[in-house]
Amino acid sequence: MDVLLKVNGTEHRLAVDVRTTLLDALRERLELTGTKKGCDLGQCGACTVLMDGRRVLSCFILAVAAQEAEIATIEGLAGENAPLHPMQQAFLDQDAYQCGYCTPGQILSAIACVQEGHANSADQIREYMSGNLCRCAAYPKIVAAVQQAKPLMEGS
Amino acid sequence: MPDGTHTTIGQPAIRIDGRAKVTGMARYASDEVVANPAHAFLVTSAIARGRVRGFRLEAARAVPGVLDILTHENVGGEAEKPQPMSGGDTTTTLESDRIWHDGQIIALVLAESFEAAREAAHKVEVDYEAETPAASFGSPGAEEEVREAGEHKDYKLGDAAAAFAAAEVKVDARYGTPTQHHNPIELYTTTCEWRGGKLTVYESSQFVYGLRASLAKQLRMDPGDIHVVSRFVGGAFGSRGGITARTAWVAVAARRLNRPVRLVPTRDQGFTIVTYRAETRHHIQLGATRDGRLTALRHEGWEVTSRPSQYNVSGTETTARIYACPNILTKVNIVHADRNTPGFMRAPPETPYMFALETAMDELAVSLGMDPVELRRVNEPERDPATGKPFSSRSLMPCFDQGAERFGWKRRNPSPGAMREGEWLVGWGCAAAAYPANIGPAACRVTLTAEGRARVQIAAHDIGTGAYTAIAITAADRLGLELGQVLVELGGTELPAAGLAAGSSHTAGICNAVAKACEGVRQRLAQAAVTSNEGKLAGLDPASLTLSAGALRGPGGAAEALPKALARAAPGALEVYAENIPQGLPPESIGKVYQGQMAMSRGHSREDATTYTFGAQFVEVRVHELTREIRVPRAVGAFAAGTIVNPLTAYSQYMGGMIWGIGAALHEATEIDPHAARYVNDNIAEYLIPVNADVRSIEVIMVPEQDSQVNPLGIKGIGEIGIVGMNAAISNAVWHATGRRIRELPIRIEDLL
């Protein structure tokens, strides 16, 4: 089936199996491999992307159902050699990762967490970031990264 | 630092690969793009013991896009089973019709798309000849045997039985730990591509040379015709240490189709197609005098393995050398069941075995009416109790003292249930941590270019440990460069060999090899400078010259900028290859690494000294008085591991290990259906790993320690030890909160009702 996907401001036309998830379309067809497959069951959060600014699990969305939306992936946050998004910079500064595999999903989830207004305390960040598993267990540093980026994102 | 010359080793540095990780540009093995791949989907066994009588494949073959179906009937002879890193033999997959365990790979379906391969795999019908399986300890048909000394040893000092019988104070208890699975977030993906007779394998690995060697043997190929690529690894924790069966079948599939093949196994398949931490049982007997000195220590362990494997971890190697005791007896038994073969998982021996010993020590402290920290002090040995050798360094008590101070341990009321806060029962517990300082041989190539940049090439593995950055720090330190002037290439068999990234051995092994190659660079530059007819360094002793801040420098301030010094030594770039053989290993051990074999100097097996990392861990738990919900609001870990190359990433590693300990003690267990010998909760919604909201304050103290004996850079390794004391510290804290002594992990609400 032919679909039109708007990813990071670029339109892509491609033919997909109706069962193809947005995750597999991004990774296998558009070669946007920054979005990760960790479980394909909506359990780990590694495939988190933003759809019209809202964080979603791309393994739980069929590509055909993602056609109307603006999709943002990790690759769209900062261009090559361009300044990093404050959340990316915060993850770098805080060492808020180890292996880094869950990191794109964590960063997109963290951006949404701030934009939703769910980053007002460490406890709230922990709660609203618990959908993104990190097996290396960088959690305390992820909380610190969200706290570092929040004022910069809010322009204060 | 041992020799006081370092400039950047020990300074916190942001990861040099960090930008790639936060922008999605880091290419994990699962992300490697190949042209027009076919997609594989595994069919795994629905029974745990028996045979495959046959397949009915018509419905699967009828799915549009299906290209091929591999079973034992059509490809069984094309590959041999893999050789595990430890434990000898293992189970088969497509080599025969035999079923050794539930979830065993029995077929691969290949199709034009992932969706078609998955649909067809679900339409493969299998006729089984099923037998009744044995699931675990105590199952009818499980076979128990004593583990013979070989890869692991037993210890017998004095007469532990008589000393225990005569002891004034005793602990005699049994402990248990569950099956656990690594569950790295990156799935166990494999992509294979043939070009002519040469094979490229993209698979996340902790030992690319090991993967290449085993695969070559399995496929009866020359290892030189296989290239393994693993630039970034999406978590490993032991699961990617040894090769598993899937890899060879993906290679066979790609050869049959004459096309690249990608396998992305599902999360639940990951529970049975790679290894796991086997469940263990322990019997501990401690005898002591009334003032707390140990007189007897007996530790007997039981570990589950597969039918053909002898895999065991024998953590008694560590529990026999923590405390001074004249009478020690250790023994390990293995129990064969109809299960997949277990393997390394974070602190493989110590996580289960130190849980048993360190909980028993807490019980002894209670029986003696003694503070648990003071009990450790009383039993601090002068030398390794098991062998009489000196410790190269041992900072257990400084760790306890600094950890206790930070934690506020002296405010602890020793009575259980005495420290309430509102509706919460508060418990404080502690435990010792220890892990051998292991190191392997490694080779390295360092190239210094005319622009004053260095390229470091080594087939090391960055499994999240910060290896890219540790290598760059070491090279910058030794060559007198800025971190940004060092380019690091790792994770591929085209590079000089490095060993298995496991057992907290890797940073020590690779950084010492990098330092050795850099020393070769310094010598070449120095020799050229001093033998020159001109220049400020002419005629000086080459040994007196050092590299720092972009220049070759002599005593008394004479210096020559690096490009000039380089021009004397080499017309273009200067390239030095070096092999580092750690003390106690034979020269041929580097050859073994190139051949993909394990060659490791272990901290408990050295001739000159026992080399161990020590730590002390303190935990607060809160148990709700009505619901019995268990929380861990804070934990403090103090560790002394010699030279810390990068404190920023080291903190992350220690912290991650401690949170793994929270998971191990309170959350993680793979449940097994005792009748079907099948894992029940084989996904990461039901196999519980810690999430952000489970973790609050984790404090890491890096206790300064210099050890010039352990290896030239004084590096001991830190990846494993963070988890080691956590199980017992948490169980001891739960006792302190509730008065309940829980000796089987994980500790859950139902244990405290």
From TrEMBL, chain A:
Alphabetical list of Gene3D superfamilies matching this protein: 3.10.20.30, [2Fe-2S]-binding domain
Organism annotation: Siccirubricoccus soli
Domain 2Fe-2S ferredoxin-type: 1-77
Entries under SUPFAM superfamilies matching the protein: 2Fe-2S ferredoxin-like (SSF54292), CO dehydrogenase ISP C-domain like (SSF47741)
Keywords, in A-Z order: Iron, Metal-binding, Oxidoreductase
Pfam families on file: Fer2, Fer2_2
Protein name in UniProt: (2Fe-2S)-binding protein
Keyword Lyase belongs to the record: no
Highest taxon above the source species: Bacteria
Record InterPro entries: 2Fe-2S-bd (IPR002888), 2Fe-2S-bd_dom_sf (IPR036884), 2Fe-2S_ferredoxin-like_sf (IPR036010), 2Fe-2S_ferredoxin-type (IPR001041), 2Fe2S_fd_BS (IPR006058), Aldehyde_Oxdr_Iron-Sulfur (IPR052914), Beta-grasp_dom_sf (IPR012675)
PROSITE patterns for the chain: 2FE2S_FER_1, 2FE2S_FER_2
UniProtKB/TrEMBL annotation, chain B:
Keyword Cell membrane: no
Positions of the Aldehyde oxidase/xanthine dehydrogenase a/b hammerhead domain: 23-132
Region annotation (Disordered) ranges: 132-151
Keywords assigned: Molybdenum, Oxidoreductase
Xref: SMART domains: Ald_Xan_dh_C
A Pfam family hit: Ald_Xan_dh_C
InterPro entries in the record: Ald_Oxase/Xan_DH_a/b (IPR000674), Ald_Oxase/Xan_DH_a/b_sf (IPR036856), Ald_Oxase/xanthine_DH-like (IPR016208), AldOxase/xan_DH_MoCoBD1 (IPR008274), AldOxase/xan_DH_MoCoBD2 (IPR046867), AldOxase/xan_DH_Mopterin-bd_sf (IPR037165)
Name of the featured protein: Xanthine dehydrogenase family protein molybdopterin-binding subunit
Species of provenance: Siccirubricoccus soli
